[in-house]
Structure prediction request, 811 residues.
Amino acid sequence: MITAFETSARALAAQQRALDVTSNNIANVNTPGYTRQQAIFSETDPLTTPNYQLGTGVVANNVQQYRQEWLDREMRNGLTSQSGYTSDTQLFQQIQSALNEPSDSGLDTSMSNFFSSVEQLSAKPDDLSLRQSVLSTASSLAGNFNSVLGSLSSLRTNVYSQMGSNVSQINSLLTNIANLNASIATTRTTNGQLSSTLLDQQNTMLEQLSKIGDIQVSRVNGVANVSMNGMAVVSNDKAMKLSLQQDINSSTSEVTATISMTDWKGNPVGTYTPAGGELASQMKYYNVTLDDKDSSGGFSVVKNINTLASSFAAKVNGLSQTGYGLNDTGSTPPGRNIFTSSDGGPITGANIQLNPDLISHPEDIPTASAAGTPGNNDIIRQIGQLVNDSTTVGNQTASQYYAQTLVTVAHIGGDASNGQAVADATVTQVGTQRDAAVGVNMDEETVNMLKYQRAFEAAARMVSATSEMMKTIVNLGA
Amino acid sequence: MRVSTNSMANQFLLNVNNVNARIQKDNIQLTTGKALVDLSDDPNAVANIQYYDQSIANSTNYMNTASQGVDELTTATDALDSFSSSLLNIKQTATAALSVDNSDKLPTMGQDVMTMLKGLIDLANTDYNGTYVFAGTKNTAASLTPPVPPATNSLPFELVQETPTSANPCGLRVMFKGNTDARTVNTGPSSTEQVNATADEVFGSGGTDVFNKVIDLYNQLNYRADGSKRDTSSQPFTPAEQSAMESSIQQIGNAADLTQRGTGAAATRLNRLQAVHDQMSSDISRTEEIRSSVQDVDVAQTIMNLNKDQMSLQYALQSGSKMFSQSLMDFLG
Prediction:
């Protein structure tokens, strides 16, 4: 009879424990990174007599966490890819915005407007209003180059700032993961069970880290050892430090970003070149796509726009230097440039400007091949034909070169967009798979709640019934 | 398969976001009329659109230039037609002078020739929009000032008074202050067209030959071969003068032929420019049509897509509201 009491008491305790777990699951249904838990019931040791064995009830002495390491790994890989492509897409959008394409007011339209005004002037080179129009379109074109390059330069500065922020976040996460490793190692239960809460936090941090950079994780007894680019950045409770800096090439003045690593003692241990995640994307854009002096041989939109501006200006100036304005005399051309640089250096997209000497003197635009012949349009007509000059930039016209640049940018955007779609699908799929295993389902928890509640009620009834029986026995002699 | 509560919510949000993204794209396409919202939508189309844009811009430039050339050459050929008519009138006057029986009519006829000569000079000074059409590349008033004596004005052709000589007893001469340079404009990537008629082309050597022939005629009507003023009581022409007169009439006829040939050449240029204009206009229309097929949105298709996406959104939201409003908890007593 006493055994029945004890069995019921154990049942009451076990169902209560299970109800606690269910309560925790319901409470954390919306907690990011939470992994559902389940109380594991097991029979207690039987009471053995020479004639029979009698069960002694149930105990809930273990809480299982539904963690699936391979899905966590797949999720981290997916997040690395997804965040890299997302960053690529965002940066592409900003480049597209800087280029003001697709629109009717981009660089190509400005060049077209310039050539259009030049052609109109060539038909009537003595017309001051048409000369003013050429100055206006030339100034607008130069301004458009400046604007595009200014936006791209700001974007590059912003990318560096984001990289700095990401490196700080990596350092913070590495330190926190190392600290969690220490906590996980010391908070293990007597039966060897790991803290589910700490493991959830660790997994969340690893996923945050995987969004920024590509990581490899190996877990030993819940302790996560993390490596980046083959370098162990978290070993047990020790974490490395990363730092971002700009390197300046002394011969080319090219400024690139590098990330160096130091161990927990502060000793430099090498550089980190991210192969995935946001940081890899940002580094690619900073060191190549937005680098005006890129020497990697990759595609640099800034370099291309600079090349376009300088080549275009060189062609126009090469002709304008041989021409005469309306009031010029003498047998030697005055050698005027239509485009100059605002800082005295070689012309680039950032510093190109309309020759300030021409701004108030449209009559000085070199249009004629001989002095004193206002109707002579030889020079301005040749400038007009530069629109078809297939040697303006390499073996292309200015427009073709710009179109090729745009197409390359478009392909970068297309690749990023396609990659993001695939990565999104992967993350969604892995997330769904993982959720199917580890996520909380409210209906399931409600069913569990009812199940444990009913079992608890039944055990209580058993106590009550046993008590009645005991009472009967105790009152037999009364 | 187990489905977690968060998984349902995430999937629902993802679906709603996707539909909203599609609706946004439909809206942008319909409001801009362009199929390409982002460069990345179709990288190959970007290159094509750039090419078509450039082609249209170039053709428009050439068309406008050709149009202006047509206007200028029309002005020139109209002036030359009048010029030829005047030359024929001078020739008729000179021919009539050969048959007069009284020399007192000759100075009057000479005065008529002088009036017509001034008319010719006015025609030679015809301008189009402020530029003199027969002055080559030195064709503005600014480039012709200040006048150098004996010139007194800033027109390309001027009748000036010089010291009379036996060869030119009236001392008049037409001075040409422009030049005989051709002016060309671009009519294609590698083609140009002349948009002026040069003075030597239509008025003879040095741009003044025809005028000098008329002055010769004027001298013959007003002066005798020895340079003296024609006497009203004497015979109109000596045989030698008559022969010289006939030669001058022949030369005026030759000059009229030259002017007509020049007019014809100018008209040919005009026709070529008109053809360039028409061809460019046609090219622009054709290229715009091709560009439209690449660049412009299919409005009917996009409106259908928009309706479809709006319905999808409506159903997704309805489905979501049903999904999240029900739970087993609702049915517990």
Chain B touches chain A through 61 residues (CB under 8 Å).
